[in-house]
Design a protein that fits this description.
Blueprint (H helix, E strand, L loop, with lengths): L2 H11 L6 H10 L3 E3 L5 E6 L2 E6 L6 H15 L1
Antiparallel strand pairs: 1-2, 2-3
Length: about 80
């Protein structure tokens, strides 16, 4: 199991306390485009699916849960 798979599993099991940089790193690995042009939100875009996550800390758990679903779609 790779480090990224472990991170995704940790995000699933405990969606609290994650940073936007963690999400950006995973998105880069799975070729998910993201944009944050000095705004307070980071938008992740994968095909027809897009997800906007506030960049402030802490990121609320339901955003992380939605992000994990996006990552799993990208992996498939």
């Amino acid at each position: 199991m790779s480090q990224r798979d472990k991170t995704i599993k940790k995000m699933k099991n405990n969606p609290k306390g994650w940073r936007i940089d963690d999400c950006k790193s995973l998105a880069d690995h799975f070729d998910i485009a993201w944009v944050q042009d000095g705004s307070s939100h980071c938008v992740f875009d994968f095909g027809e699916v897009s997800l906007s996550i506030p960049a402030k800390r802490p990121i609320k758990p339901f955003y992380i849960k939605k992000f994990v679903v996006l990552i799993e779609e990208a992996k498939a």
